[in-house]
Amino acid sequence: MPDPRFFESLATLDVAGLAERIGAEVLRGGDRKVSAVAPLGTASSNDVAFLGDRKFAEQLKATGAGCVILPAAATELAPETAAVLVSSTPQASWAAASLLFHRSHPLTRAADPAEAIEDDSVVLEPGVVLGEGVRIGRGTRIGANTVIGPGVQIGRDCHIGPNVSIGFALIGDRVKLYAGVRIGEAGFGAAGSRTGPVDVPQLGRVILQDGVTIGANSCIDRGAYDDTVVGENTKVDNLVMIAHNCVIGRNCLIAAQTGISGSVIVGDNVIFGGQAGVGDHLKIGEGARVAGGAGLLADIPPGETWSGYPAKPIRQFLRETVWVSKQAQTKPRGKTDQ
Fold it and tell me: Is the pTM of this model over 0.85?
């Protein structure tokens, strides 16, 4: 279930009624009641899940979901306990279902600052807007014109710069967010449908653990369903992008203009050079190094340094670079200088 501090639950529907509203076909279990959406791996008997790729077939077979949305070719994989809806675009149908069950709390009015702050040591500079349910720990300073959305929790002794926006987030103690940071915006999720791409609602959170620093104008998207997490004491430079569902370890250093795609898992003590680019669903082991400008398209084992595009172990990259350089300098056989 999405965090109720950030999302409102809207309705309970029977599977047949849900199918009618999202344009799916009932294969079985039309009278089953459902009230939420969830991924296959964490869904319970009240949840609707979907299969978008057969590589998740084992998760489908083991899911506890009360209802699953599947392409026609995968219906034989559905567990006996689940109601089944058939759709040619299951992820888009799941996205439509999520809009029926969940809605983010809007920032319709500013909360009373006295209800949000722990004590008088909290400083709110001019123009700060606080949503309902916001809590701010003692010793924290919030910069001018910063907007903090409903339900956000901020710890003690934090420094939040001017013109920052924070939503759908839980923030620890001693966290620094410099000017223009964007925390908790919707991740980049789109699903194909008969009418073209549709946005997939993002129902997760951002968790910034103690001692994290986020540089100016950097963006960290909330999870699609699970959380985007930045571990203790990790330092992020200016103009960095961390996409939805990423989990960044402790004591990492991420230099400016690095972009990390969705669902990347980063171990502790990892360093990214400037303008590094990381493909989605990769794992970067503890103590690894990603050189500046590298384009990472494969997992990095712990402790290794990778460079180049596509990135590879740095010794291999350097050997290949030297070889190419030598080939470029070699004169073609049979030809003399004019």
Answer: yes
